Amino acid sequence: MSGRRAVRVAESVRAVIAELLLREIKDPRVGMVTLTAVHITDDLRHCKVYFSCVGDDDARARALAGLRSAAGFVRRQLTQRLALRYAPDVTFAFDPSLETSERLNALLRGERESEE
């Protein structure tokens, strides 16, 4: 995303999808989902939404299935609410960065406790 417009649109996309998840998408598989990042191409045709969720691998797979089933609705809403000329292809992907940072913090805490 080198273009400034793409960065602005990506932030707007994140806000719209967060609003949709909070108020309009009623799929029980999409429970505790947090959007972590949105990457959109400079031509605004492809959008990749990264998310994190609470739970194990099974909960993550259910959340991903729920988000994928809602992708068409999300695409239509993005086009309408942001007045985009083209509807971007929306794909969802799990973002493991929160789990990785949590694991590193636990390791560092354990190391500090062993030193004391």
List the helices and strands and how they pair.
Layout: H1 4-23, E1 33-40, E2 46-53, H2 57-69, H3 71-82, E3 89-94, H4 97-115
Helix pairs in contact: 1-3
Describe this structure in words.
The chain is 55% helix and 19% strand. The protein has 116 residues and is of the alpha+beta class. A three-stranded mixed β-sheet has the order 1-2-3, with helices on one face. The chain is globular and about 60 Å long. The mean pLDDT is 90.
Keywords:
three-stranded mixed sheet; 116 residues; 4 helices; alpha+beta; 3 strands
Helix content: 55-70%
Order of helices and strands: HEEHHEH
Which spans of ≥5 residues are poorly predicted at pLDDT below 50?
Answer: none
Secondary-structure content class: alpha+beta
Number of strands: 3
Mean pLDDT across residues: 90
Shape: globular
Please give the largest β-sheet: 3 strands, mixed
Alpha carbon gap, first and last residue: 46 Å
Rg, nearest Å: 17 Å
Oligomer: single chain
Write a brief caption for the model:
Helices cover about 55% and strands about 20% of the residues. With about 120 residues, it is of the alpha+beta class. Helix 1 (about 5-25) packs across helix 3.
